[in-house]
Design goal:
The chain is α/β, with parallel strands linked by helices. It contains 13 helices and 23 strands. Strands 6, 7, 9, 10, 11, 17, 18, 19, 21, 22 and 23 form an 11-stranded antiparallel sheet that branches. It starts with a strand and ends in a 7-residue tail after the last strand.
Length: 459
């Protein structure tokens, strides 16, 4: 565990260190963005805390850049700022900020709440429900739920999306997207066909194959098909997913330089194999490249690789930056993998990718009448919308009922005229803390949410 604070002045670091005085968490204070970025890429701290009012920093751009790095994309960010306008909060939320905390003249968050927030970040996948002091009052109200996701590919009648919602096959949700707006497709919904059958490209909990449902079921698919046929140059298919496991910062940087945006593969990197089983099930990679030093350190964890390659289209290749860890022992004990006597360089990587493409199963190959959207394309972004019910309100969050589940740590916007009763803005931003089946007759899902970016007035 480690936390890096990036701020020109010392005040924010003082606040963080005092709030975490009872916790043995390594802290580091860096005063420039350049030093902060170098630290993130070398040390891969779990949490980075930013002064969002620092004029040398554009926090949304910085967070987005870091979370698109091969190895740093799992870093969580907390932004302290006096700017809690809805536009700024939404910009940070979409960029990937984990939390936005108001810090203005004469006001800082409660140190106790901040310490609880840090504990939650370290256990966000399976949080302790008692981490936060949560004392809600009943607050029944109709509301609107919004969250965000990405479109991976689109055909005239289907699309693959990634999002933090958990739709079951047959469930549907309203969406908004600039492409469908341009094509004037009305009453747009996506109906889930299957989920999590392919690995994730973006950083969302679920991948969903969906049927496109719209007002005109005859003309609308033809509009999408015509757009696909007229815009083939937009399509950027990366059928090969590569996952690296490497702990050496210098070699991680060499790996980063190998990953070219114009190639037909995407890559994710991890500094250890502590969660190897979860990573494999989440990413569903086609090629795993792993430093033998990490295997030697934890041979039990590596056994997950043996089972994975038996049931998935995946090749595992080990390599070593240390001559001591030769191939003979690994060839004997791990016959399911290939073992390179040298580190992986760019020519070797590209030759592996070429061979993999030749062996791709039919369901992974590039298809006609499908556009594979690049992550930088505005067409890849979508928002998902559903009615929900507010059930309760607390100082640090709220309870809602939804017709489907959302993942822990899902960022969302809840809009309700009833927030005005509490003299708050109509739209509030949250992260999901945990969820469970609802006890009401609606048969929906109950979720406890934590506020993002509350200002003094809202508090």
């Amino acid at each position: 565990m480690g936390i890096t604070v990036i701020d020109q002045g010392p005040e924010l670091f003082w606040f963080v260190s005092n709030a975490l005085l009872q916790d043995e968490i390594p802290l580091r204070h860096l005063q420039s963005i350049e030093a902060g970025e170098k630290n993130i890429l070398l040390e891969l701290p779990e949490i980075v805390i930013l002064n969002g009012d620092d004029k040398s920093l554009i926090p949304a751009q910085f967070i987005n850049r870091m979370r698109n790095h091969v190895f740093a994309r799992n870093t969580l960010f907390i932004v302290f700022t006096a700017d809690t306008t809805p536009e700024f909060k939404k910009e940070l939320l979409i960029a990937g900020a984990g939390q936005v905390l108001y810090r203005g003249r004469g006001y800082s968050p409660s140190p106790k709440y901040f310490a609880s927030l840090v504990k939650w970040f370290f256990t966000s996948k399976n949080p302790d429900a008692q981490i936060f002091d949560y004392k809600p009052v009943p607050f029944p109200a109709e509301a609107e739920f919004t969250t965000f996701g990405r479109i991976g590919w689109i055909s005239p009648t289907q699309c693959m999306i990634e999002a933090n919602i958990d739709l079951n096959p047959g469930q549907s949700i309203e969406i908004k997207n600039s492409l469908f707006d341009e094509l004037e497709i009305k009453n747009l919904k996506l109906e889930c066909i299957e989920k999590n059958k392919v690995g994730r490209y973006y950083q969302y909990a679920n991948s969903l194959l969906c049927k496109i449902i719209s007002k005109d079921t005859t003309k609308d698919p033809k509009k999408i098909e015509a757009w696909i046929l007229n815009n083939p140059e937009i399509s950027k298919h990366k059928p090969i997913k590569v996952v690296y496991f490497e702990n050496d910062p210098e070699y991680r940087d060499k790996i980063r330089q190998m990953i070219k945006s114009d190639k037909r593969y995407c890559a994710r990197g991890y500094a250890d194999i502590n969660e190897l089983q979860d990573v494999l099930n989440y990413q569903l990679p086609h090629l795993v490249l792993i430093d033998r030093a990490l295997i030697q350190k934890d041979k039990v964890k590596f056994e997950a690789m043996r089972a994975f390659v038996k049931t998935n289209f995946c090749y595992c290749i080990t390599y070593s930056n240390d001559e001591i860890l030769g191939v003979e022992e690994f060839q004997k004990n791990y016959e399911f993998a290939m073992h390179s006597p040298t580190p992986i360089d760019l020519p070797l990587l590209e030759s592996m990718i070429l061979k993999l493409e030749q062996k791709l199963p039919e369901n992974l190959k590039t298809k006609e009448k499908i556009i594979y959207l690049n992550k930088h394309s505005s067409y890849s972004r979508l928002s998902l919308h559903a009615p929900c019910k507010l059930t309760e309100l607390a100082l640090n969050g709220a309870g809602v009922e939804l017709p489907f589940g959302i993942s822990n740590f899902c960022a969302c916007e809840i809009s309700s005229n009833s927030f005005g009763v509490a003299t708050m803005g109509r739209s509030q931003f949250f992260r999901s803390f945990f969820g469970k089946n609802s006890t009401s007759s609606s048969k929906g899902k109950y979720h406890r949410l934590l506020f993002m970016g509350q200002n003094v007035k809202d508090n």
